[in-house]
TrEMBL record, chain B:
Residue ranges annotated for the ABC transporter domain, each copy included: 7-243
Localization per Swiss-Prot or TrEMBL: Cell membrane
Primary localization: membrane
Protein source organism: Psychrobacillus psychrodurans
Designated name of the protein: ABC transporter ATP-binding protein
Length: 345, 267
């Protein structure tokens, strides 16, 4: 055996099986999701209009303008998908719980509550202000749910976290309702935001999003090898030179920043993290150095496609993407929860 | 080959919450040797091992490596010298053998560096050593208990520490695999001079494979030394509350404990 086949074999061992082909398929799906998102909707544009809208700024046809409007929506949806996909994979890694997802753990309901309070009591209207409220709400909820979920014997077991998250989420949702019912103004403001939607995404929200997205991605990528070690249990991780508490803190911060920002800008969109991570773990396995970027990709693809489907089935109106992801996500969560093999990672 | 690390504990007390399990233990781990901790169930063997490995913070006393308290080391630096394989590590679903063994390289990698040639070599060497190369791209779930345990030890070997602690590496394995694992650990010790400290539940295998024995009873160190000096009828009676005779192992000349029960005793 010569040294090139040797080093190729060596690399293959430390790459997920069939990684290249899976990456290629994912990129193709991403491109298809982007193109359909630009072309489909209440007004279906032609190929020519698509090209005009993208590359010929002097073309001023109606179709070209529709495409241009959809560019920001599409980019925004990709950002949200990436953020939610990574938030999901981080939450799962930190809790060693395959069912963890920002929506299931109540984190984005917490963000919602704070934003609603801001709208109702402080007349907050701009996305830049929503963000900070959402982040605070998401953080407090994360701490709270992990706190309750870790009580008692055995630490934060999957089922305890799930119950704590569901209970917290239900309580917070009813608070949200209680706060907005008496206020006509809040109801008005809140209506478009109550169900997650990427339709409101514009260049301004993308500009606000980017710095938070970069911070979250940066922490997620850097902590991937350490999170891989944490997957072997706290004792093994400690033996490998990790401080589990510090690592969990950073990973949760990144997860909360990503999920909180997406929630502030798009409204609550559930299950993306769960769907993206599970799909990817199924095909490439549990190595987080690959799973984190691939879940980001999968999150972007799933959210963008869901948005397109939402536009098509309710045409000429549109169905908010948050409703759609809940419809797809909830049954899958039930299937996963029943599958005994995923009770713990 | 060999290492010169001095590894010791002084007046060590530790336990869980308010419950003190380890009651003031002093010990010095013999360099380049295989030490085995023996004692009855629940006497604190795992607690002691975890405390000297920094997995549990002692309530009093110090664990020192080369004269410096282990909690004063940067964690990754310590992890390049001292490794522990706990009794029940978590197996992520769907993980391959090579992936799991590779995770042992973590302390040798920095935040921004990827995998170096040395990392790949260390993983290959560890898999080779534990005879699991042929399974490298298999899922752990497909392996038998004995093979799986070899994978975990390979993970700890890939870490390339001079001191390796193992908590009951042979429990739940058939006798054949127990001997296989202990032979492999002995080869490791002979080849690299790795200082090994482990908890074993089988006193006869302990007597055969240990260069040095630490006997624990209710959180106290009651005897230590070479197996032939330590393992006696009296010691077995006091720590296991078992009547026995101790004869010479016909294979290794080490002590062999023959238990006396209430039945089947010839008159
Ligand atoms: N995580 C824990 N929390 C509280 N008590 C524990 C824990 N682990 C072990 N113990 C108790 O500490 C004592 C010693 O346990 P351990 O060191 O595991 O014993 P051994 O390994 O010798 O069987 C036992 O009484 C056990 O019940
Ligand atoms: Mg034990």
């Amino acid at each position: 055996m010569n040294s090139t086949t040797d080093s190729k074999k060596r690399l293959d061992l430390h790459f997920p099986k069939h990684f290249t082909i899976i990456l290629v398929i994912a990129i193709i799906l991403l491109v298809v999701s982007i193109i359909t998102s630009l072309m489909l909707g209440a007004r279906v544009v032609s190929y020519q209009e698509l090209m005009d809208g993208l590359f010929y700024t002097n073309q001023d046809s109606y179709g070209a303008n529709v495409v241009r409007k959809r560019i920001s929506r599409t980019i925004f949806s990709l950002c949200c998908g990436v953020a939610l996909g990574i938030a999901g994979v981080l939450m799962q890694a930190v809790t060693r719980n395959p069912l963890a997802d920002p929506s299931i753990l109540g984190v984005n309901t917490g963000a919602t509550l704070f934003v609603v309070c801001g709208i109702t009591f402080f007349n907050i209207t701009t996305a830049g202000e929503y963000i900070w409220l959402a982040l605070i709400g998401a953080s407090i909820t994360a701490v709270f749910v992990f706190g309750i979920g870790s009580m008692g014997r055995g630490g934060a077991t999957p089922i305890k976290l799930l119950l704590a998250g569901a209970a917290t989420s239900a309580a917070l949702s009813s608070l949200v309702t209680a706060i907005i019912i008496p206020s006509a103004y809040a109801q008005d403001q809140f209506r478009f935001w109550q169900v997650g939607s990427v339709g409101s995404g514009n260049w301004d929200s993308i500009k606000i999003f980017i710095p938070f997205l970069i911070v979250g991605l940066f922490i997620a990528f850097l902590s991937a090898p350490a999170l891989n070690a944490l997957a072997l249990g706290d004792d093994v991780a400690t033996s490998l030179g990790i401080r589990p508490g510090v690592l969990r803190f950073f990973a949760i911060v990144a997860g909360v920043v990503l999920c909180g920002t997406a929630t502030a800008l798009a409204g609550p969109i559930g299950f993306i993290g769960l769907l993206a991570t599970h799909a990817m773990r199924f095909v490439i396995g549990p190595d987080l150095r690959f799973l984190i970027p691939m879940s980001a990709l999968a999150g972007a693809i799933i959210l963008t496609f869901s948005d397109v489907v939402g536009r098509l089935i309710a045409s000429p109106g549109e169905l908010e993407v948050g409703i759609l992801t809940a419809f797809i996500g909830a049954p899958i969560l039930i299937i996963l929860a029943k599958k005994s093999k995923v009770r713990s990672l | 080959m060999g290492n010169t690390h001095s590894f010791r504990a002084d007046k060590l007390f530790s336990g869980y919450d308010n419950k003190t399990i380890i009651q003031g233990i002093d010990l010095e781990i013999p360099k380049n040797k295989i030490s085995v901790i023996i004692g009855a169930n629940g006497c604190g063997k795992s607690t002691l091992l975890k405390t000297v490995a920094k997995l549990i913070k002692p309530s009093e006393g110090d664990v020192t490596l080369d004269g410096k308290a282990i909690n004063k080391y940067p964690p990754k630096q310590l992890a390049r010298i001292l490794g522990i394989l706990p009794q029940s590590p978590v197996v992520p679903e769907g993980i391959t053998v090579a992936d799991l063994v590779g995770r042992g390289r973590f302390p040798h990698q920095s935040l921004f560096s990827g995998w170096s040639k040395k990392d790949y070599e260390a993983v290959e060497e560890a898999m080779e050593f534990m005879n699991i190369t042929e399974f490298a791209n298999h899922d752990i779930d497909e392996l038998s208990g004995g093979q799986r345990q070899r994978v975990w030890i390979a993970m700890a070997l890939a870490q390339q520490t001079d001191i390796l602690l193992l908590d009951e590496p042979t429990t739940f394995l058939d006798i054949t695999y127990q001997v296989e694992i202990l032979d492999l650990l002995t080869s490791l010790n002979r080849k690299y001079g790795t200082t090994i400290v482990m908890v074993l539940h089988d006193i006869n295998l302990s007597a055969r494979y240990a260069d040095y024995i630490f006997a624990l009873h209710k959180g106290e160190l009651v005897a230590e030394g070479k197996p032939s000096d330590v393992i006696t009828t009296d010691l077995v009676k006091s720590i296991f509350d078992l009547n026995c005779v101790v004869i010479q192992d016909p294979i290794s000349d080490t002590p062999l404990v023959i238990p006396k029960g209430r039945y089947h005793v010839k008159s």
